[in-house]
């Protein structure tokens, strides 16, 4: 088997960026940060959604920074038009996240926006916050990297050869059908998670489903509400010690770890405030590690699109405990960081395209091996 080839930090061609924000100050600030960071070229700015769509049509930028609150055509209304005119453009939402904007941002991420960054409430907070600047540049950089696919790389991009991924044959599940589904996702995850759960359909009634989606605290309750409305089964943030029931989806609360424990003979949710793992809280490795410890082969792990390697160690623990682990494939992933790391570590039972994951899980729940 040929070695995998992946990007490593190094010189990249300049990524084209359009900044759409109704504030002249914000547009100028973002443009200055991108200029100082290097590897970015701001080709145009827009003060409203209509102009943002026009720039997407003309420039086909690699990345667009899109404000939600703009006069006339706002960011949410402009998004589908931008993606229709320039499907390869990665969109980073930028907004002050109140309750309304949080719901809108989540809807936008299920419709194709790749990530969101929360703008500070005040202009001075935005100008002086090094944390916000770092988060903005990191997320924009992640989206820019995601636009680079093997086979379409410019010659100046550095590549390294990695060891072969190894066999990814699904272990036969003859006597133990999964009763718990544990999912980890990050960048691009809201859309992928919602699709997988919808595609599983009636099979969800035979599973207790736990999801770690990397997102800020404001988002997770709204995300759970949207998931429930989309799939037609209950979805919510669990409380510590809550007994896990089939037919329910449990979303990790933002800023807190979601794990699994066994108390008084029952399998329950464990909510913790321990230190971040892999720089993440909630962390996929925490959920997967607990699932391996308390559920064994009754668990089924699923690693979806996301940046980084969170979930790799936990996927290894699940495999050692006799559980199967599915990883989303590269072409269908927004960013093949997390699932790719699991595959390279040889912890994946099978690598499956997003469109086929739900059907595969339905088969496993019925005790049938997917094709």
Automatic annotation (TrEMBL):
EC class of the enzyme, as a word: hydrolase
Keyword annotations of the record: Chemotaxis, Cytoplasm, Hydrolase, Phosphoprotein
Response regulatory domain location: 16-134
GO MF: phosphorelay response regulator activity; protein-glutamate methylesterase activity; protein-glutamine glutaminase activity
Active-site residues (renumbered): 186, 214, 310
One example of a Gene Ontology biological process annotation: chemotaxis
Keyword match Coiled coil: no
E.C. no: 3.1.1.61, 3.5.1.44
GO cellular component, one term: cytoplasm
Catalysed reactions listed for this entry: [protein]-L-glutamate 5-O-methyl ester + H2O = L-glutamyl-[protein] + methanol + H(+); L-glutaminyl-[protein] + H2O = L-glutamyl-[protein] + NH4(+)
Protein's name according to its UniProt entry: Protein-glutamate methylesterase/protein-glutamine glutaminase
Organism in which the protein naturally occurs: Bosea thiooxidans
